[in-house]
Amino acid sequence: MSEVSGEEVVVVGGGFGGLSAACYLADAGADVRLLEKNEQLGGRASRLEADGFTFDMGPSWYLMPDVFERFFAYFGKEPSDYYDLTRLDPHYRIFFKDGDQLDVTGNDDEMREKFEEYEPGAAEAFDEYLATSEQHYETAMNKFVYEDRSTLRDWVDLDVMTAAPIGLQLLGSMQGHVEDYFEHPKLQQIMQYTLVFLGGSPKNTPALYNMMSHVDFNLGVYYPDGGIGAVVDGLVELGESLGVTYETDSEVREIARRKDGFLVETVHGDTLHPDEVLVNADYAHTERELLPDHERQYDDDYWDERTYAPSAFLMYMGVEGDVDPLEHHTLVLPTDWEPHFDDIFEDPEWPDEPAYYLCVPSETDPSVAPDGHSNLFVLVPIAPGLHDGEAIREEYREKILADIADHTGVDLRDRIVYEKQFSVSDFGERYNATEGTALGLAHTLRQTALLRPNNRSSAVDGLYFTGSFTTPGIGVPMCLISGEHTAQRLIDNHE
Of 317, 302, 458, 477, whose CA–CA distance to 397 is shortest? Predict the structure, then answer.
């Protein structure tokens, strides 16, 4: 990156996009101050510590290790300088609600045998699907993800043209793509579940994201000792070594352009006057609530018409005893999950037959729970914007705990010694998340690549955006890359 020595940059928001951008900017010589609304850094990757339990409140899957290695390598470091990784085996366990059970592992021979049991010819289809997925992953990452292509002209060059077959995958849905390989509905679910990490459904997510199966089966699923919070600590430590200043409990209430830079004011009345501002806060919230009307790029209709990724109903639970046969990552899936996706994207309501995720980090890391106890949270994807008052939460709590007992054999109800719920309104309050989305903008066909909001404001010179609303999109690895792209755009503006 080029040098921006002496430039004062305020980064608003300490999620992975903001932490990443701060490191790149400080390394390039900028004077970087990061303001975080909440009491701790990490954004949605907050930690909850209570009664001897430590919970990752948000992201809990460490995927795409190559992205983290690339990030730290830029600064002459590697992940092991900051945290240790354990490769999970199995990657995760699936309980189907008809009584079937399957472990997804990194052993391709084992997975071929299991796939063949469901459908004759599925082993060969598995090989073909993964080969395509790996090709798409390598091409997409090198030409569309690591390269910042956030404007139309970025797509009109030879590199993109040579990757045209990959680009054409954007024209179909994941549902149609997977059906070309597998007929059995359970095999389709296995190949599509990672779409949840992108905030989409099989019907509305571009087929390009079949590359997530390469991430899942070939690259592996890991656990950073101490949880995702340990990765946050690593980025913060790196940033401090580069000169980044962090301020928590510093919510921004106004961003405005001034003649010689910006005015940034916090809710406590503190005022800063940086040369540039880079925002990692919720993009829609920033435009609607923090900027003057004449400095907005998008009107209310634009934001109202976006498809937001799901919110979630979360229960963080400290449980007495073990929770076998749950694995570190466990999925519980109905045999027909289409109604659940309809309840999220078509006719929003609390799902009657939900698919959900259970995380038990104490299966891998005993330090996150007291002796003789298990650390567990359950996440049910639900539609953003739903009413989540006390009555519906209590009703749904009982429903999910009964469902866990019925379909995994693990009855938690008489063993819970600590519990905290988190849902739509909490995402809105803690993270200023539009409609209480847990992730940002969904990766639909109309909200992918250059169709996502730009990472540089077209209305205000010197104002930039990073994180899950802009390119390359949702997820911790993508936000790390987003921070790099946005920092580079700011630096390029000085050339």
Answer: 317
**For residues 232 and 42, is the Cβ–Cβ distance under 8 A?**
yes
Q: Are 83 and 234 contacting, i.e. CB atoms less than 8 angstroms apart?
A: yes
Over residues 444-492, the pLDDT tens digits come to: 878 877 789 999 999 999 999 999 999 999 999 999 999 999 999 999 9
Rounded-to-integer distance, Cα 401 and Cα 420, Å = 14
Q: What SS3 string covers 60-111?
A: CCECCHHHHHHHHHHCCCCHHHCCCEEECCCCEEEEECCCCEEEECCCHHHH
Say how far apart CA 462 and CA 275 lie, in whole Å: 7
Hey, which bits of 111-269 come out as E strands? 222-224, 245-247, 252-258, 261-266
Distance CA 183, CA 390 (A): 42
Q: 3-state class of 3 per DSSP?
A: coil
More reliable by pLDDT, 455 or 144: 455
**How does DSSP classify residue 423?**
-
The answer to whether 122 and 102 have CB atoms below 8 angstroms apart is: no
**Best CA proximity match to 295, nearest among 324, 330, 263, 328:** 263
Burial degree of 301 (CB within 10 A; 0-12, 13-18, 19+):
exposed
- Does the pLDDT at position 171 exceed 80? no
454 three-state secondary structure: coil
- Run of H or E residues at 12: strand 8-12
Q: 220-247: per-residue pLDDT in tens?
A: 999 999 999 999 999 999 999 999 999 9
Residue 472, preceding peptide bond in cis (omega within 30° of 0):
yes
